[in-house]
Write a structure and sequence with these properties.
The protein is an alpha/beta fold and 252 residues long. It has one domain: 3-Layer(aba) Sandwich (Rossmann fold). It has eight helices and seven strands. The protein has a seven-stranded parallel sheet with strand order 3-2-1-4-5-6-7, sandwiched between helices. Helix 1 packs parallel to helix 2 and helix 3 packs parallel to helix 4. The longest helix has 29 residues.
């Protein structure tokens, strides 16, 4: 018996990176997995299917859903289909996210809108669609993927930081609204995590980051997945409205 046996977890933006690591961790603990991601070409479609097969190989039911998490109506239809396919939605991880960095004076309206829509509006969309299901079930766990820059800000990332700060405030507000019916909501705030995106950073920038981290290393996607597992499971049954920073001590 795993920590999530018998539960269904929905993870957005999970074809790769942190989202995939969370889905794999949940599956290894017995959860059935529904995950979404944006598919714009054959390569992305192949990646979606490859991840589905990898998760399913862990012995659970897994289905992948292609779609735009920032689209409200599309999200409503997707969540309805997931509920029909699985019968319940016990855990929601709002992980879908993008970056379009730039200094405020050089940032376009399109850059701002794109990041806020994908990172923050998508979380609203999925919470809006999943909340009635969780309320009828009298329980559920919602986890918003925030960031340390949503806590402390970061020059050159005002759009990303604003979206992640919004994810934190959204989790706290939902925790207050839905808590009386047994639904918990929390946020995790990763720091410098070793992913394909951070691997492309220049070496001097990576070294500068490491100097700011007391543990002197970047985090792994599994570090994020482990904390999400705690928040998704009954081990955290009395934890709600919290923000857990996973950053090696970078921001104390």
């Amino acid at each position: 018996m795993g920590l999530l046996t018998g539960k269904t977890a929905l993870i957005t933006g999970a074809a790769r990176g942190i989202g995939k690591a969370v889905a794999m961790k949940f599956a290894s603990e017995g959860a059935n997995i529904a995950f979404t991601d944006l598919v714009l070409n054959d390569e992305m479609a192949a990646g979606l299917e490859a991840t589905r097969k990898e998760i399913e190989a862990l012995g659970v039911t897994c289905r992948a859903y292609a779609g735009n998490a920032a689209d409200f109506e599309e999200t409503q239809k997707t969540v309805k289909q997931i509920h029909e396919d699985f019968g319940s939605i016990d855990v929601l991880v709002n992980n879908a996210g993008i970056t379009k960095d730039g200094l405020m004076l050089r940032m376009s309206e399109a850059q701002w809108d794109a990041v806020l829509n994908v990172n923050l509006k998508s979380a609203f969309n999925f919470i809006h669609a999943c909340s009635p299901i969780m309320l009828r079930q009298r329980g559920g766990s919602i986890i918003n993927m925030a960031s340390v820059v949503g806590v402390h800000g970061n020059a050159g990332q005002c759009n990303y930081a604003a979206s992640k700060a919004g994810m934190i405030a959204l989790a706290k507000s939902i925790a207050q609204e839905l808590g009386p019916k047994g639904v918990r909501a929390n946020a995790v705030a990763p720091g410098f995590i070793e992913t394909a995106m951070t691997a492309q950073l220049p070496e001097d920038i990576r070294k500068d980051w490491m100097k700011k981290i007391p543990l002197r290393r970047g985090g792994q996607t599994e570090d994020i997945a482990n904390v999400c597992l705690f928040l998704a499971s009954d081990m955290s049954s009395y934890v709600s409205g919290q923000v857990i920073q996973i950053d090696g001590g970078m921001n104390m």
